[in-house]
Amino acid sequence: MKASLALKTSPAKKIPSNTHIAFASFIGTAIEFYDFYIYAMAAALVIGQVFFPSSDPAAQALNAFLSFGIAFFARPLGAIIFGHFGDRLGRKATLASSLLLMGMATLLIGCLPGYATLGSWAPLLLCLLRVAQGIGLGGEWGGAALLATESAPADRRAWFGMFPQLGPAVGFLLAGLSFLALSAYLTEAEFLAWGWRLPFFASALLVMLGLYVRFQLSETTAFANALAQKTTLKQPMLALVKNHKRPLLLGALAMTVCYNLFYTATVFCLSYGTQTLGIARLDFLQMLCFAVLFMALITPVSAALSDQYGRKPVLLIGCLLAVLLGFTLNPLLSSANTISISVFLSLALLLMGATFAPMGAFLPEQFPVAVRYSGAGLSYNLGGILGASSAPYVSQLLVNQGGLTWVGYYLSGMALISLVAVSLMQDHSRTPSRPR
User: Fold this and answer.
1) What digits encode the pLDDT tens for the residues 62-84?
2) Spatial CA neighbour of 268 closest among 69, 74, 425
3) What is the CA radius of gyration of the chain?
4) Residues of the chain with pLDDT under 50
5) How far apart are CA 88 and CA 86, in angstroms?
6) Count of beta carbons in the 10 Å neighbourhood of residue 3
7) What are the DSSP E strand ranges found in 94-214?
8) pLDDT tens-digit map of 341-354
9) What are phi and psi of 205, to 5 degrees?
């Protein structure tokens, strides 16, 4: 009888280790952001030419950036949908579903014929698939952050929350290396005809890996306790909007600096560098792959500092430095010098990592467990609408109307918004009971 009971209650092999939890939170965000970034790079390099009429190259570029931005408006919808089920039913199945949706949409984009074949249906279907991508990614980050932090020791929440924050850097590096290889080994005609699709096809293999890892997990400690105590809510989103509007809105504004830094450096600068400055695509992609290493390196450092000194001091310093960085954009980028451009890209992505790393713990800590998936995910993705969805498009318009100096002012303005928002938020890094 005792042996039978032991088999039922203590299956040690089913209890995930901290290493497994960290890896599972990391691998999903890495894959989903890889999917998202290969589209971002394709938008800067080829989407306009393949899916939109060729009569006006400038209009092609703007339309490509608009198709890029659509997904950011879908991401809050994903946060609402997946947040609802994540707060009601659990983190594990919800995270697997978001990964599957993202992977399917990415694969279908790779299979979609262009404007020459489908005419106006091509951009329409492309935008619908981008909406699906946005919904999938909208459900990913909040769940991955909770997976990492809700079972973490109270004094190491930022450190464990750092692992999903590493996902974007690694996802971008994989995306950059894939386009770098294509640029090195394919002709321009081959790249335009079919080569750009290969990274989208490769996503299917990565998604299968991510699903396998995540299906090995059990629920987080905090959510398992909530289920046992029957404190989950039937309508978590309603409770969130009714009782937690302030941290929701401030969290969204706090995220704008991360988004704007990243997509200014990786999408706008890639487009401007290759199309306006005439830098070879291969050379600019090499600069980006080098620069993103600074983002990956600063992420664990910033997370560790936020555990030691608190989230707000680290975030406030990062936001202030980002405000100052905006004033360097014009002189460094307009020089057309690869060293100067690499310096700007490296600084932008370094500050992105410095401000992004503490968010893995900072945003979830703003909300109680019953609405945490919804709250952290929605604030994170609402920030994407302001900070990222229109960043390449607005930057291109500013260049057309007033020059690169105004793009720098735009970057500084977004960072200033986050600086003010973070200063108004509560810091729960010293509150042991917050994530329970």
Assistant:
1) 677 777 778 888 888 988 888 88
2) 69
3) 21
4) 1-13, 435-436
5) 6
6) 7
7) none
8) 999 999 999 999 99
9) -65, -40
DSSP, collapsed to helix, strand or coil, labels residue 258 as helix
In sequence order, which residues have a C-beta less than 8 Å from that of residue 37 and are 6 or more positions away?
Answer: 168, 171, 172, 175, 176, 266
The structure tokens listed for 258 are 């991360």
pLDDT in tens, 367-414: 998 899 889 989 998 998 888 777 888 888 898 888 899 999 999 999
Domains of the chain, each with CATH number or no CATH: 17-424 (1.20.1250.20)
Nearest-angstrom CA–CA distance, 76 and 384: 9
- Nearest Cα neighbor of 40 from 193, 184, 172 is 172
- 3-class secondary structure, 276: coil
Q: What is the pTM of this model?
A: 0.80
Is residue 189 exposed (0-12), middle (13-18) or buried (19+ Cβ within 10 Å)? Answer: exposed
Rounded distance between C-alpha atoms, residue 369 and residue 229, angstroms: 12
Q: Cβ contacts of residue 405 below 8 Å, gap of 6+?
A: 329, 330
CA 321 to chain centre: 21
339: exposed, middle or buried (Cβ count in 10 Å: 0-12, 13-18, 19+) = exposed
Cβ pair 198, 178 in contact under 8 A: yes
